[in-house]
Amino acid sequence: MTIEPNVLIVPARECLDRAYAPYSGLRVAAALLDDRGRLFTGVNIENISYGLSMCAERVAIFSALAAGARRITALAVTSSGADLLSPCGACRQVMAEFADADVPVYCDTGGAVRRFSVAELLPAGFAAAQLGRQR
């Protein structure tokens, strides 16, 4: 399935001001489509105890799952000023759990948009099949 990047980038940009980033100053927002064509957004939420912070991608994914989504069909992430934007390792692993390997992930820096697949972001990722289980 081909998704026009702006279908996700525009709503992600629209919620950037909701990010809570008093420590890094870097606001990040994400938007995704689920397996029913529904749109979900998320923003990064920092905490003074950095390990308790949550990335925008995972906030969007977990919101979708809480609303009944089972699969992610496309995702975009944008920020308030990063020159190079790419999901962290934890977000990549969560994407691999809930999205097929060929699902597009659009990384928007406000000028340039780079497209990756989930498999390109997490080659040889840890998966349920490695435990002899199905999703």
List keywords for this structure.
135 residues, alpha+beta, Cytidine Deaminase, domain 2, 4 helices, 5 strands
In brief:
With 135 residues, the chain is α+β, with helices and mostly antiparallel strands.
Structure description:
It is a single chain. This protein has 135 residues and is α+β, with helices and mostly antiparallel strands. It has one domain: Cytidine Deaminase, domain 2. The chain is built from 4 helices and 5 strands. It has helices at residues 6-14, 56-66, 89-98, 118-121, and strands at residues 28-34, 39-43, 72-79, 104-108, 113-117. The protein has a 5-stranded mixed β-sheet with strand order 2-1-3-4-5. The two termini are 21 Å apart. 37% of the residues are buried. The model has no long low-confidence stretch (mean pLDDT 93).
Q: What is the element layout, followed by pairings?
A:
Blueprint: H1 6-14, E1 28-34, E2 39-43, H2 56-66, E3 72-79, H3 89-98, E4 104-108, E5 113-117, H4 118-121
Parallel strand pairs: 3-4
Antiparallel strand pairs: 1-2, 1-3, 4-5
